[in-house]
Amino acid sequence: MIERFRSRRSTAAAVVSAMGLALLAACGGESSQAASTDGLRETSIDVGPFANFTLPWVAQELGYFEDEGLPVELVINNGGATVQLPLVTSGKLDIGASSAADVIPAIATGAPLKLLANAGSVLTEDLEKSSNMLIYKDPAITSAKDLEGRTVAFNTIGGAQEALVRLAVEEDGGDPDQVDFVQLPVQNIPKAIDEGKVDAGQGLEPFLQQARELKLRELLSIGNILPGAPEFAYWTSASWADEHPKELAAFQRAIGRAAVAAAKDPGLVRTALEKYGKIDPAVAANVRNVGQFTDEIPVAKFAELGDLLTENGLATSLPRADQWVLDPQA
Questions:
Q1: Residue 266, preceding bond cis, omega within 30 degrees?
Q2: Domain extent listing, the chain
Q3: CB distance 161 to 169 below 8 Å
Q4: At 214, is the secondary structure helix, strand, or coil?
Q5: Which of 74, 132, 227, 321 has the smallest number of CB atoms closer than 10 Å to its CB?
Q6: Which residues are in the SsuA/THI5-like domain (predicted)?
């Protein structure tokens, strides 16, 4: 299911655009996206009811997009990069949001995409701050190697989350091919572990609260394979980046401000989850781990992540990072 939210400013712009479309149709002209009074085109951005996806809602709530004169359409896509990739490459979604490691393999195979540097990324360096971790129940599991012969659930299989856990198992001396990876909706994973249907699985805020209530344990931070590298990032198509440099720079500034604000006040994330993500207020209020938001992820950090993926067979060879990572204000 895809849900769309427009800012009040962009809704008005859409009305003006609709009138313009009728005139263009009458004259045989081509349509265009809604534009703000500052000349910036409406930009569609992925967002979702998980802690690390909330920055566009934070930016909207604090008026940062309006400060930039950027009309936005915030789109909920339930499916991560798997769903977003065809939308972004076809021009149906302007800016995607997902694990950076989910996008890099696609770039390595020729997908015309650009990851955005210094644009509100999420770092996850330890379990204390992680909003994306592997959870389990059986006390016999003490390290990644113990996942051999076990069933592990993810919201999406075959992507970066599975790949990074495979790498963790291998680095711990285990055989990742002996782990059975299965797909479950992320909100159902804690209960499935508690009931013994799976042995371990991905835990994301706000559903980590459910895991804690069930007394589940935390094994590892999925994003902690390469500390300091971006776990979560924003990205777009190369063609959209070329055609809309002003919109992209405005987005980077607004989302960067939101990252700084959320890092200082995690309550902004909880408010966004409740108000826009429609998460139960009691659940949103108890969200503990929101990840480590930052507006400073240089191109070199994306390059390190790309090197890690290629060295471990999780992505084919990549060109120089400056060809697939873009800093709109550089």
A1: no
A2: 43-122+228-323, 127-224
A3: no
A4: coil
A5: 227
A6: 52-266
Helices marked H in the chain — which ranges?
8-27, 55-61, 64-68, 80-89, 100-108, 160-171, 189-194, 208-213, 238-243, 245-264, 267-275, 281-285, 299-311
Helix (H) or strand (E) holding 325: strand 325-326
Say if residue 27's pLDDT is above 50: no
Contact present, 126 and 228 (Cβ < 8 Å): no
Rounded Cα gap, residues 27 and 40, in angstroms: 24
Chain-centroid distance of CA 170 in Å reads: 25
Domain 43-122+228-323 identical in fold to domain 127-224: yes
Tell me the HSE value of 310 on the side-chain side, using a 13 A CA sphere. 17
SS (H, E, C) 275-288: HCCCCCHHHHHCCC
pLDDT digits (tens, 9 = 90+) for 287-296: 877 778 889 8
- The CATH code of the domain at 43-122+228-323 is 3.40.190.10
**Amino acid at the residue 120:** G
The length of the chain, given as a count of residues? 330
Backbone angles phi, psi at 233, to 5 degrees: -155, 165
10 alpha carbon, distance to own chain's centre: 23
Nearest by Cα to 72 from 243, 256, 248 = 248
Q: Both tokens of residue 189?
A: 């994973």
Helix axes 299-311, 100-108, angle to 10 degrees: 70
pLDDT digits (tens, 9 = 90+) for 59-117: 999 999 999 999 999 999 766 788 899 999 999 999 999 888 889 999 999 999 999 99
Alpha-carbon 136 to chain mean position: 23
Q: What's the CATH superfamily of 127-224? A: Periplasmic binding protein-like II (3.40.190.10)
